[in-house]
From TrEMBL:
<protein>
    <submittedName>
        <fullName>Nitrogen regulation protein NR(I)</fullName>
    </submittedName>
</protein>
<feature type="domain" description="HTH luxR-type">
    <location>
        <begin position="137"/>
        <end position="202"/>
    </location>
</feature>
<dbReference type="InterPro" id="IPR036388">
    <property type="entry name" value="WH-like_DNA-bd_sf"/>
</dbReference>
<dbReference type="InterPro" id="IPR001789">
    <property type="entry name" value="Sig_transdc_resp-reg_receiver"/>
</dbReference>
<feature type="domain" description="Response regulatory">
    <location>
        <begin position="7"/>
        <end position="121"/>
    </location>
</feature>
<feature type="modified residue" description="4-aspartylphosphate">
    <location>
        <position position="56"/>
    </location>
</feature>
<keyword id="KW-0902">Two-component regulatory system</keyword>
<dbReference type="GO" id="GO:0006355">
    <property type="term" value="P:regulation of DNA-templated transcription"/>
</dbReference>
<dbReference type="InterPro" id="IPR016032">
    <property type="entry name" value="Sig_transdc_resp-reg_C-effctor"/>
</dbReference>
<keyword id="KW-0597">Phosphoprotein</keyword>
<dbReference type="Pfam" id="PF00196">
    <property type="entry name" value="GerE"/>
</dbReference>
<keyword id="KW-0804">Transcription</keyword>
<keyword id="KW-0238">DNA-binding</keyword>
<dbReference type="InterPro" id="IPR011006">
    <property type="entry name" value="CheY-like_superfamily"/>
</dbReference>
<keyword id="KW-0805">Transcription regulation</keyword>
<dbReference type="GO" id="GO:0000160">
    <property type="term" value="P:phosphorelay signal transduction system"/>
</dbReference>
<dbReference type="Pfam" id="PF00072">
    <property type="entry name" value="Response_reg"/>
</dbReference>
Length: 202
């Protein structure tokens, strides 16, 4: 299974229901993994790439809500969609307030499920891209020398080269040299790009 393929993990103790979801979702090119219980999922759940979970809120053993809490404690990055019966809707609403992506009440139509899965996967892909961007920014920042980092901070504050030179006790030419190297290492083409990158990662 490629990490670049959107992945959907189904957690439900009803085998017939799992099979029906697999049939529907595989026809839309998702990579599917099925688990008959929350405990089974937790044994080997290692989310990579973009994905989401479809979880029955009421199961024998660990419930869907208990699974959600455990995944949250493990900093699970994937959105969780709950499947509920009518009597479980209040619990599902509380789960959404605690961070679950959405819930679907049985019986639901196929398009409603597909729309919800698409929404969850779009969110997961967006979060994955943001995380990768933060990692790249951190790598660039770590590559700066102490002086280059000082120049970066003052440039972001909007200070001109002459002011930076006076505050750091160095020449304007030295500031310009540090500034040029800093911009190259941060992989930005303009001060506006630099400021946007710094603000996005604060």
């Amino acid at each position: 299974m490629s990490a670049s393929t959107p992945q959907v993990h189904i957690v439900d103790d009803d085998e017939a229901f799992r099979d029906s979801l697999v049939f529907l979702l595989e026809s839309h090119d998702y990579a599917i993994s099925c688990h008959a219980s929350a405990e089974a999922l937790l044994e080997d759940f290692q989310p990579r790439g973009a994905g989401c979970l479809i979880v029955d809120i009421r199961m024998p053993g660990m419930s869907g809500l208990e699974l959600f809490d455990e995944l949250s404690a493990r900093h699970n990055p994937w959105p969780v969609i709950f499947i509920t019966g009518h009597g479980d809707v209040p619990m599902a609403v509380q789960a959404v307030k605690r961070g679950a992506h959405d819930f679907l009440e049985k019986p639901f139509n196929q398009q409603a499920l597909l729309n919800t899965v698409d929404s969850a996967l779009a969110l997961s892909q967006q979060q994955q891209a943001s995380s990768a961007a933060r990692d790249r920014f951190a790598e660039c920042l770590a590559s700066l020398t102490i002086r280059e980092r000082e120049v970066l901070d003052k440039v972001v504050e909007g200070k001109m080269n002459k002011v930076i030179a006076d505050e750091l006790g160095i020449s304007i030419k030295t500031v310009e040299a540090h500034r040029g190297k800093m911009m190259d290492k941060m992989k930005v083409r303009s001060i506006a790009d630099l400021v946007q990158a710094v603000m996005a990662n604060r």
